[in-house]
Specification:
Strand content: 25-35%
Strand order of the largest sheet: 1-2-3-15-7-4
CATH class: Alpha Beta
Pfam families: Cu-oxidase_4
Number of strands: 15
CATH superfamily: CNF1/YfiH-like putative cysteine hydrolases
Largest sheet: 6 strands, mixed
Organism: Bacillus methanolicus (strain MGA3 / ATCC 53907)
Order of helices and strands: EEHEHEEEEEEHHEEHEEHEE
CATH architecture: 4-Layer Sandwich
GO molecular function, one term: S-methyl-5-thioadenosine phosphorylase activity
Helix content: 10-25%
InterPro entries: Cu_polyphenol_OxRdtase, Cu_polyphenol_OxRdtase_sf, Cytotoxic_necrot_fac-like_cat
Number of domains: 1
Keywords: Hydrolase, Metal-binding, Transferase, Zinc
Number of helices: 6
Distance between the termini: 32 Å
């Protein structure tokens, strides 16, 4: 079943998580906004005008009813560093990119009134939730982060906190699909090194030195290999490249494009 539902013009939500857990908000923005025909870009690092991004973030903050002062953003350097977020980090990267958590592509928290936010435009957003501890996390997995094991690093980091892999719930969000994502032998060799022997290959040869790579399936296989139950992993069918009406796509738009935002957090419930 598709985990994401379009809540309004600006974002989708992970419907089951949000409806079944009071105060939980988790979702993914679109490229659209109700106030203007201007694309709803949320990435500071690709914006010509930083103030436009700040304005868009303020609009999203109002829609989510989650103040910007509680948002946390990351530098996102296509590495595999995972960070634990606490109240001391609130506000970092929310209105100034240079204030983002450095060398961070995934983070998690056990605290409420914190919104974890990462930007995407083809890379895979991976959402993590464990109900007993109320732990939340999100990771940014492009091909580099995927083959270097950011999903594995997140599972290991949470295990060190006492969160068991087989109790984790995971949603793999909108990203570029295998039909739209062609890579060469160099990338596939790294995929093979990461997965070793698996029955279901996340790639298909289409011609010499060209493969369709399914980044979502790659990360799913890595998660299963590291103890997450397959029945606890939901994968969206939404492709950022195919759905031109909904999403930015770095590859489709030849690098000149905006960014969507993946977000997850607990609101304070009174």
């Amino acid at each position: 079943m598709e985990p994401f539902v379009l809540e309004n013009k600006e974002f989708l939500i992970i419907k089951d998580w949000v409806e079944e857990n009071q105060g939980l908000i988790a979702g993914f923005t679109t490229r659209n906004q109700r106030w203007s025909d201007t694309p709803f870009n949320l990435g500071f690092h690709v914006a010509e005008n930083q103030q436009d991004v700040c304005l868009n973030k303020e609009k999203l903050s109002e829609l989510l009813e989650f103040p910007l002062s509680s948002w946390v953003g990351a530098e996102q350097t296509h590495e595999v560093f995972i960070r634990k977020v606490t109240k001391e980090d609130k506000g970092k990267g929310s209105v100034i990119y240079d204030d983002s958590l450095k060398r961070t592509d995934g983070f998690y928290t056990f605290e409420k009134d914190i919104l974890l936010t990462l930007c995407f435009a083809d890379c895979v957003p991976i959402y993590f939730f464990e109900s007993k501890s109320q732990c939340l996390g999100i990771a940014h997995a492009g091909w580099k982060g995927s083959v270097n094991g950011i999903a594995e690093e997140m599972v290991a980091s949470l295990a060190n906190e006492g969160v068991k892999p087989d109790e984790l719930m995971v949603v793999i969000g909108p990203s570029i699909c295998e039909k739209c994502y062609i890579v060469d032998d160099r990338v596939i060799k790294l995929v093979q090194n990461r997965l070793e022997a698996v029955e279901k290959k996340p790639y298909n040869l289409i011609q010499e030195n060209q493969y369709c790579l399914n980044l979502q399936e790659l990360n799913k296989q890595i998660l299963i290999k590291n103890g997450v139950l397959e029945e606890h992993i939901a994968v969206t069918q939404l492709c950022t490249s195919c759905h031109r009406d909904l999403f930015f796509s770095h590859r489709r738009d030849k690098g000149k494009t905006g960014r969507m935002m993946g977000f997850i957090g607990w609101k304070e419930v009174f």
